[in-house]
Amino acid sequence: MGLGFIVGVLGVSILAHAAYSTVQFRGLLKIMEEEFSNPPMNVVIELLLGLVLCMWAALIVPGKFLSIHPDSDENRMVSLPGNLDFMIFNHRAKVFRSEIDMKLKL
Amino acid sequence: MVTKTEETQLNRLENQVDNGGGGAWEYLCLVKKLKVRRPDKVLRHGLSILNDPKKRSALGPDVWTLYEQVSIAAMDCQCLDVAKDCIKVLQKQFPESKRVGRLEGILLEAKGLWAEAEKAYSSLLEDNPLDPVLHKRRVAIAKAQGNFPTAIEWLNKYLETFMADHDAWRELAEIYVSLQMYKQAAFCYEELILSQPTVPLYHLAYADVLYTLGGVENILLAKKYYASAIDLTGGKNTKALFGICLCSSAIAQLTKGRNKEDKESPELQSLAAAALEKDYKQRAPAKLLLLTSALKSLKTS
């Protein structure tokens, strides 16, 4: 969590910095009266780096991935629950009393 | 529904608790969440928590659900005194509660006083005619007395109102199977598969019923459902694999005289047999010989 979060913050700040750089670059172009075709190379690299970091953090921080396969251990049913709403009590416990001799202390 | 991970977690916790390793409360919570029936263990570990004032006060308001859980477990173990004491405590805390009234009805059932229990439930139903648990308890009373036609009648009436209750459908299916009314049971399992298509155990039960009904068409259909159960479990269900083998040999036997060429996927049986052999080799090598001879007799017959 800690590392992923820090990386995420770093990635977002790098993206913000890239945006700021682009704005500044456009301001510079306006002064020099040139056409804006594409941002400078270092901003593009910065953008890509920020993207990678943000993506990595977004995959790590929110939690683990859950399996969607029906046959994975997390999703595979192995037994149905005892149908407790319909439970009936005339079974062998009547004859074989349990050895638990505990009482509820009031 | 109990998945594989939850099952292993439950077994681990059970082992830990039984060997005095602590974690009794977590175990009881898991038992309750998974709705498994472990009355003796719930009774023992639940009472050990309830009898310890320090542990009991640490639970806060959860202690009341624990009292309920322990009282039902005690009835299941026929320790009626403990159950009565638990209910008394609950009654003191919640004097007007319907839930406690229900517990009292269940206690009457555990004592075998059917008429009194019935009366208690009817009076509770007057206040709240749409309480599903009360209706289910009435079915259980009829079932406990061995009065299956009445139980079926109640259940059908209940299912008319609460059609989405798959537990009730399952109960009805199981009653029908126990009475060998397989056609009706098949209908219930169809309903269950419709409402929860991803549960392999319903596919398996439906296939079992179809196979028991017999006839080429039913067995062909049973084979398909065994196959879908294998699909949903990734081939880890031994019963479904055996089902494929049995269905294939039954179909071969039934269609022997006819030279109808409706052989669909003839390799399915050998694939299932291979999977079974692999599974047995891994988990029960001592029984491998038994399996191979059984499979051989299926093939030759």
Automatic annotation (TrEMBL), chain A:
It is found in: Endoplasmic reticulum membrane. It is a multi-pass membrane protein. One of its GO terms (molecular function) is inorganic cation transmembrane transporter activity. It comes from the Eukaryota. InterPro entries: MMgT (IPR018937). The chain crosses the membrane at residues 42-61. Keywords: Endoplasmic reticulum, Membrane, Transmembrane, Transmembrane helix. GO terms for cellular component: early endosome; EMC complex; Golgi apparatus; plasma membrane. It holds the Pfam family MMgT. Belongs to the membrane magnesium transporter (TC 1.A.67) family. Component of the ER membrane protein complex (EMC). This is Uncharacterized protein. It comes from Citrus clementina.
UniProtKB/TrEMBL annotation, chain B:
Residues 100-209 form the EMC2 TPR-like domain. The keyword Membrane applies. Keywords: Endoplasmic reticulum, Membrane, Repeat, TPR repeat. It is found in: Endoplasmic reticulum membrane. GO terms for cellular component: EMC complex. Pfam families: TPR_EMC2. It is a peripheral membrane protein. Belongs to the EMC2 family. Part of the endoplasmic reticulum membrane protein complex (EMC) that enables the energy-independent insertion into endoplasmic reticulum membranes of newly synthesized membrane proteins. Component of the ER membrane protein complex (EMC). This is ER membrane protein complex subunit 2. It comes from Citrus clementina (Clementine).
